[in-house]
Amino acid sequence: MKKILVLAVSVAFLWSCGSTYKTTDKDLAEVNVSEQDTVRIASDKVEYEIIIIEPGFNSWLQARAQPEGYYTQEFLESRNAIYVTAWNNRVLDPSRFDPNLYQMQIDYNPMIDYGYEVNYKLYYYFIYFQIQYKQQLTNFVPRI
């Protein structure tokens, strides 16, 4: 069976509203935008995939990230290993870190070659996350 790397990160905002909610055209437009912000990288050739569900990430990635090839795969892998460790530590400590931000552990093994695209998207998700939510996972200052 193929191993799957799934990163399903979604931020849930809780609203305490009235007991009823009417769907408007604006709401439907927002749903369409959030569907476009789901990034999925998978291939028949690659045994791993990454799924990022984060409103705004896809457009941020296209507008602000360095082009693919800017960083080497080795650089991305080394940073991702550090970021994943920090992320997973925060998931396991919900009393210190917001469990709405750190919902799921990431299954990332630095000894496995996930390929450039998976490492690229994962690295830039960590950068996006730190900038967007004003978090600093490690001593590295998030830079684009």
Average pLDDT score:
77
Query: What count of domains describes the coordinates?
Result: 1
Strand order of the largest sheet: 1-2
Q: Mind summarizing the main beta sheet?
A: 2 strands, antiparallel
Percentage of residues assigned to helices: 25-40%
Q: What characteristic shape results from the CA principal axes?
A: globular
State the order of secondary-structure elements, H for helix, E for strand: HEEHHH
Residues in β-strands, percent: 5-15%
Briefly note the structural class of the backbone: mainly alpha
How many extended strands?
2
**Number of helical elements:** 4
| Low-confidence segments | 1-35
Rg (C-alpha, Å): 16 Å
Measure the end-to-end span.
36 Å
Key terms:
2 strands, two-stranded antiparallel ribbon, mainly alpha, 144 residues, 39% helix, globular, 4 helices
Structure description:
The protein has one domain. With 144 residues, the chain is mostly helical. The chain is globular, with a radius of gyration of 16 Å. It has helices at 25-36, 57-64, 73-91, 116-132, and strands at residues 38-41, 50-53. Strand 1 and strand 2 (50-53) form a beta hairpin. It is 39% helix and 6% strand.
